[in-house]
Amino acid sequence: MKGLAFDLAHLLAGGLVLVSFMLLYQNRLYSLLNVFALQAVVLALSVAWQAYVQGAPHLYVTAAIAIVFKAMVIPIALHRIIARLGIHREVEIVGSLGPTMILGLGLVALSMVVMLRVTADADPLGREDLAFALSVVMLGLLMMVTRRNAVSQVVGFMSLENGLILAATGAKGMPLVVEFSVAFSILIAFIVFGVFVFRIRERFDTVDLEALDRMRGDRR
Amino acid sequence: MIHAYQLVVLIPYAAALILVAVPGYRVGAAANVAASAATFAAGLWLVVGEGIVSDYAIVDEFNIVFIAINTLVGFTTALFSASYIGHEIETGRLSPSFVRFYHAMFQAMMGSMNLSLIANNIGVMWVGLELATLITVVMVGLYRTPQAIEAAWKYFILASVGISLAFFGTILIYLAGQPALGEGVPAMTWSLLQAAAARMDPAILDLAFIFLLIGYGTKVGLAPLHAWLPDAHAEGPTPISAVLSGLLLNVALYALLRFKMLVAGQPAALDPGPVMVVMGLVSLIFAAFMLYQRRDIKRLFAYSSIEHMGLIVFAFGMGGPLANFAGLLHMAMHSLTKSGIFFAVGHIAQAKGTQRIAEIRGLSVTHPRLAVVFALAVLAICGMPPFGVFTSEFMILTTTFAREPWLALLPAFGLLVGFGALLMRLQDTLFGEPVGPAHRVDASSVPMVLHLLLVLAAGIFLPPLLVAWFQRAAELLG
Fold first, then answer.
1. Does residue B152 belong to the interface with chain A, where contact is any CB pair within 8 Å?
2. What is the pLDDT of residues A81-95, one digit of tens each?
3. Where are the domains of chain B?
4. What is the DSSP track for B97-144?
């Protein structure tokens, strides 16, 4: 049983890293959202498995939040925003894909080296989950850097946050995890709300953040 | 029975709920002042009362300094805001319903900051700081001009990333504390973590500190993570700029210092001191040079905040009783002076109808009283005697000089560079031929004069009681 628990946890956490890579090369907004929903599903499975293995029923709540909120509500809301703003065909990646993917591989390798070396004495399941989680965080950051579009930056941030939830559930017995996932959900709802309410499109005719850069206060 | 430490959090949150429902900005502003005054009273009660260590709350000699400053400046800012916000409605920059929202958010922000300060749990502290950040994002975007939205978005993305990295660091601290303290809440409790620091894995602590430094350092505004700070200060309502500079940066700094104490408790872990010294110096010198290129008066003082936060982080990085004392004192003085300056800038912006330095000229002719107060406040932040900022800067430099003579040259250089820039801009605004409109100023000058008097009093005579209090806090910092 111990072996199976370990392997499945690994499989799911590794799957999360893989989906993060898939996010990196999506250049259509709709497909980006679909892949993000897939990532949320993998996260929910991973958290639910942790809840079962650790015998921590409250983690099922976190899993439920991931599946309802991140795999359904947020992608659907963003889908609608994109449709309304008419930006679904925008391709917007800074730099070319090849170097970005290689950089991503480098970041994953870095996370593994750092985390596994540092946490040599910790609980093996926790430390390897944490190494995967750091990779997801790093890939999320990379995605935020390589995107110009506000919606895909938000998706990058959400995938980063998925990594954090994975880390929090992987740290055995960590209290307040459910509260954290709620707090993060509020944060994300806020961002999505912000994209829409601030109506970046309406004011700048694009969601491209370069338009925002032209509004820099000092050059008025 | 409800205790004072619960009151400093509960009063603002309750007030926020009530203020949402209060129609009419005059009543709202009055209620805002009343709630802030009540919070300040609760804060004072904590100052004179005994320390507290419970499962979720802690009040010791260290964080009480922060709570006292937080509730005091919160109160004076509410006073200032009450007289300031009416003008914003008259000029049509804000609608009454937005002002209602603004008052509620102001209280919610104060409550979240106090929550973060008294939390005895690294997770609750994180949640408090996250909430305070979110609320300030909304406040920064309140005017809904393109610039305000750009500032809010930038602040939002950078602060979210910062806060996420801080969360990863928090998880790592839990992981480090878990073997020593067992699973569950104890491994996230400050007081217990602090006591068990020596038994934690040094390698995990190192890694956690790096994440926490980058994460909370973004919120402190340390270069090169400061990009959000000038925009957020320049585009939001002036009372919010005052609270951002005077309080929110301090709360983030508080979190950073707590973790520094924790990591310092494990001798085998990396020494946080030198890292903080370097980051502080980089911020200080970088911001000092950036001051020369500012054209917007609020941006100018935002960069000055980066400069001073750099100096404070430098002082705490040096460590030792004297440098810690000076760092705490400088933090208190900076909070009071900088929020006072932002009050004055709010007056100036209302008088001249602009924030552009080039369009603010000849204040000494058109608004002599305002010009005197503003000039004194800017001289105070430049570190001129007899103001309190001089005392703390002098202490930081002398203690550094006594220990590392060569190192002391760098902060001294940075401060001189910043001094020149601020003096030059001060001269531009005060003298010369007045240009543009010169409106009457309605906002109350009581808060800024009060802040200036406090800073002056601290510069001339520090009461022994206060000195003893700060010394105990400095000892806790190690």
1. yes
2. 888 777 766 656 777
3. 271-478
4. HHHHHHHHHHHHHHHHHHHHHHBSBHHHHHHHHHHHHHHHHHHHTTT-
